[in-house]
Specification:
flat; five-stranded antiparallel β-sheet; about 50% helix; 14 helices; six-stranded antiparallel β-sheet; about 525 residues; 18 strands
Length: about 525
């Protein structure tokens, strides 16, 4: 071999650098841009989830106030027209409300004339002008209403109202309403601790700003910008570009309330989103120029580092593909470190998205989709290994009464406790899921009907034990459980769950708080 005529490794590396740096730099740009797009889309989706959660918190506050008003509307003092005692009762109800300084109770007749208002001493004259626009709807339909923002007659401040009818022989005799200041929602918006520059705002049904972050009280009561109003009025939720009152370009996500026509929007400054991409591209261009200007003596070292760094990313990339949590050690090359950081961020977002998609937000248990997937996988193994499994379908008895009596917040706490008791009464190999509402399910791998019945009976007693709530009160519910087993009751996830559901209804028909076994077939 004529080795003297063969090119040296240095010359090869120089040629390799010249031939590959520019294309590699372009490819890196595409990969980074793609990763940026994915990260941007994921950020917006996560922000949309945050908007939904914040709007749900507003809805829960609405529901709590409406529930208190509905209970107050049944006061015997109204039947006897004893408005003085009713005024004292309304004051007592307000003392049990959080942020009671932000809320008042008013009673008005069908003409809109106020008969009493807790912001005035009982007997003081009251302004008879009607400011609560939805009041007419309340008297026509006899159903609760949530108003848009309006100017209060007594307070001369922006406020909104939640009104319920006081019924007399099925017709609305009075309207009982809670007047609420928008500042009530400032604490909710601040609690989210959003990144600097992000803006969150609550809008009523007309697109008027009810609450907003960013130290902007002057905007409360003003209409949102036209682009925002257009989307709020045409969609229940979405993502779009807009410009704030401060002339800041933002990516806006919003979600509309399920109880009212109100919406909550979050604005993310566009410059915050593209800043990281610009930073990455800047360093990529800098590195490309540095590589092209490198000497021949350093070419082989740079090539070695590049190879080592690429090899260092292989393991994290494979881990990302399998859904594992990615960790990337220092790779001593800026570009590789940046890609490694992107892999870590993508892994964290993927893990979070997978968990949110497959688990119930309230209890942390598996949701219906994940439960079906797990059961289907286990059925495949059972068929292959000639094994068995059992399904428990669990429904709570009397839970609606707890919700109606103590409120949804207490009901949610009861559901969390039920989930904890089910987990405590299951094996490590069992999977407990919340199917929705007050319905739960459990899959017991390797358990026959007799074994599952024993576990189910213990769970009935555990779930039916009293639930301690605040002020030393206890709530009482029970559980009805249906049990189905593979292969006797069915061979698919849907069939087993259907049979177990039928058995659960059989348990209810037999008097509740018991276990019933599904028929074979």
């Amino acid at each position: 071999m004529k080795t003297k005529l063969a090119p040296t490794i240095r010359s090869k590396l120089v040629l390799l650098v010249m031939a590959c740096v520019v294309p590699a730099a372009l490819m890196a740009v595409l990969l980074i841009a793609h990763d940026y797009q994915r990260a941007r889309d994921q950020l917006l989706l996560n922000s949309l989830g945050m908007a939904r959660a914040m709007m749900s918190a507003v809805d829960r506050d609405f529901a709590s106030i409406e529930s208190s008003l509905t209970a107050l509307a049944t006061s015997p003092y109204l039947d006897s027209d004893d408005l003085s005692d009713f005024y004292m009762q309304a004051q007592e109800v307000l003392r049990n409300q959080r942020d009671q300084s932000d809320i008042n109770v008013a009673l008005a007749d069908v003409t809109g004339k106020q008969l009493l208002n807790t912001r005035r001493t009982f007997g003081d004259p009251l302004d008879g002008k009607r400011r609560f626009i939805q009041l007419e709807t309340l008297f026509k339909t006899g159903k609760p209403v949530i108003s848009d923002l309006f100017r209060g007659d007594i307070t001369q401040r922006n406020m909104f109202a939640i009104g319920v009818p006081v019924l007399d022989q099925g017709k609305a005799r009075y309207s009982l309403s809670a007047g609420i200041f928008p500042e009530r929602f400032d604490k909710l918006l601040r609690q989210q601790e959003m990144p600097e520059g992000w803006i969150a705002a609550i809008f009523d049904g007309t697109g008027t700003i009810v609450a907003r972050t960013g130290n902007s009280p002057h905007l409360i009561g003003k209409k949102g910008v036209s682009e925002v109003i257009k989307h709020l009025q045409t969609s229940k939720e979405g993502i779009f570009e807009s410009v704030t009152y401060d002339d800041v370009a933002v990516q806006t996500v919003f979600s509309r309330s399920k109880l009212s026509n109100w919406s909550l929007a979050i604005g993310i400054p566009t410059k915050n989103i593209v800043h990281e991409l610009r930073y990455t591209l800047f360093w990529l261009i800098f590195a490309t120029i540095a590589l092209l200007a490198s000497s021949v003596t350093a070419a082989w070292l740079i090539g070695g580092r590049i190879a080592d760094s690429i090899h260092g990313l292989t393991g994290p990339a494979l881990a990302l593909g399998t859904g594992e949590v990615v960790t990337v050690p220092p790779l001593h090359l800026r570009e590789a470190d940046e890609v490694g950081a992107s892999l870590i961020r993508a892994s964290e977002m993927l893990h979070q998205a997978q968990h949110q998609a497959n688990h119930d937000e309230l209890t942390g248990l598996a949701n219906r989709t994940l439960f079906h997937e797990i059961v289907s996988q286990q059925l495949t193994l059972c068929e292959r290994n000639n094994a068995v499994l059992s399904i428990l379908y669990i429904d709570l008895d009397g839970f609606k009464a707890v919700n109606d009596k103590y409120g949804h917040e207490t009901g949610d706490n009861v559901l969390r406790t039920v989930a904890a008791r089910l987990k405590a009464g299951s094996r490590h190999s069992d999977v407990v899921a919340r199917l929705g509402g007050d319905e739960f399910a459990m899959v017991m791998v390797g358990a026959r009907l007799d074994d599952a019945r024993i576990v189910a009976e213990k769970l009935v007693e555990s779930v039916s034990a009293p639930y301690v709530i605040k002020d030393a009160l206890t709530a009482h519910i029970s559980a009805s459980i249906g049990v189905a087993a593979y292969p006797d009751s069915g061979t698919t996830s849907e069939a087993l769950l259907h049979r177990a559901d039928g058995a659960m209804y059989k348990a209810k028909s037999l008097g509740r708080r018991r276990v019933a076994i599904a028929t074979t077939g």
